[in-house]
């Protein structure tokens, strides 16, 4: 019984070690994994500065690197060409993308569902509709309107910044 326990523990250790070195074994840079069970989550969620940590790793490891979020492998990129390839040219191949846990909502009933909060087939459907609707020409046409609205909002905030309450809803 003791030998069986040792064998199981050794196999579990080897499995966890192999899983945490997935990216390194494929010559993809990755920050050191701090926990076999949490992966890089400790560092990623430290002080609630998720994006700051990703920026630091981007500077340290380059535009493409891998991290472990628990047992999930996550490939992170800031390469515009690769993002264009995945999000536009190869879009039909990809069904979904990762959503941070703090943004998860009921995909069937929540009225706040939108492209940024959707997952799976719903995300793919919404993404396809929006991609067809928002061409570069259309975005260039609405750009001045968006800029004007944002300037009006900033002016309103500046004028009322000493007030404790501010209504910025339309």
From TrEMBL:
<keyword id="KW-0408">Iron</keyword>
<comment type="similarity">
    <text>Belongs to the cytochrome P450 family.</text>
</comment>
<feature type="signal peptide">
    <location>
        <begin position="1"/>
        <end position="22"/>
    </location>
</feature>
<dbReference type="Pfam" id="PF00067">
    <property type="entry name" value="p450"/>
</dbReference>
<dbReference type="GO" id="GO:0004497">
    <property type="term" value="F:monooxygenase activity"/>
</dbReference>
<dbReference type="InterPro" id="IPR036396">
    <property type="entry name" value="Cyt_P450_sf"/>
</dbReference>
<keyword id="KW-0479">Metal-binding</keyword>
<dbReference type="GO" id="GO:0020037">
    <property type="term" value="F:heme binding"/>
</dbReference>
<protein>
    <submittedName>
        <fullName>Cytochrome P450</fullName>
    </submittedName>
</protein>
<dbReference type="InterPro" id="IPR050476">
    <property type="entry name" value="Insect_CytP450_Detox"/>
</dbReference>
<keyword id="KW-0560">Oxidoreductase</keyword>
<dbReference type="InterPro" id="IPR001128">
    <property type="entry name" value="Cyt_P450"/>
</dbReference>
<keyword id="KW-0349">Heme</keyword>
<keyword id="KW-0732">Signal</keyword>
<dbReference type="GO" id="GO:0005506">
    <property type="term" value="F:iron ion binding"/>
</dbReference>
<dbReference type="GO" id="GO:0016705">
    <property type="term" value="F:oxidoreductase activity, acting on paired donors, with incorporation or reduction of molecular oxygen"/>
</dbReference>
<keyword id="KW-0503">Monooxygenase</keyword>
